[in-house]
Amino acid sequence: MNKLISFIIPSYNEEKNISLLYKSIMSIIRKNNYNYEIIFIDDGSMDNTFNELLNLNKNDKNICIIKFKRNFGQTAAWNAGFRTAKGDLIITMDADLQNDPSDIPRLIEKLNQGYDVVSGWRFTRQDSLVKKLFSRIANIIRKLITNEKIHDAGCALKIYRKECLKDLYLYGEMHRYITTILSLKGYKVGEVKVNHSTRKFGKTKYNAKRLLKGLLDLLFIKFWNDFSARPLHFFGMLSFIQFILAFLILVEQIIKAIFVIGKLDIGPLLLFSGILMISGLLTFSIGFLAEIMIRTYYKDKESYVIERII
After folding, report:
1. What is the mean pLDDT of residues 82-107?
2. CATH topology of domain 4-227
3. pTM, 2 dp
């Protein structure tokens, strides 16, 4: 293979794993004669991770090290790696030895079948029951919201064609939704069952708070994909619903006053109708302002992705 492959590997307190991971990757690279670069991102490690990376860099000039001043998280690390990578194909993986580099040739083979992105699927996942449960919940919610078909969006082992990542900007906890974003943009996403190992050294960085953060990011991704070019449609729909509810409550109160009570009392429902009218106007105003901002945002940008021009 003549194409340059960029490996992007975020590393946070992985001093005992780095050299073992490098050896494992290099055995696959040599076996398949890959043209490669390896980009390690030291995400503010507080152990000896950076020195381990420096030792590797001394012996292999195809290694690039990006050192963060503090821990910014996996999303920021991948984003920095994507901006630095020179490869035609980009492979991401964790530094904790749970991903198996021997799966890389199968990812490439699947990509060559006409896909833009191929994601690993940890079919026999070697994690704690709690971690697997949270991951399962996150994947179910993701599928319900986005209608995406892949089983395991959280698997770090993925391969991308470089052009997919050209206009991709990550923040928050969006690293686990990269395939979702690309799928919504129209890129073809595939999936391959991959090996998964138990963590031998270091501690997992996953916790329950990341599930909530990830869910909020997912809702934003869905909103941005559906309404980024037309926010007034979303806010206008919400305001219309509020106006209809306010009108129905008002009609009900008037009919009740005429045929039941004999007079129109200013009670809780009537006040609620007034509040709905005011909130509907405010929601519509927010949508109108958002529409102006979006038109300014897209002034020098495109809201579409071109596959090819013939």
Report:
1. 93
2. Spore Coat Polysaccharide Biosynthesis Protein SpsA; Chain A (3.90.550)
3. 0.73
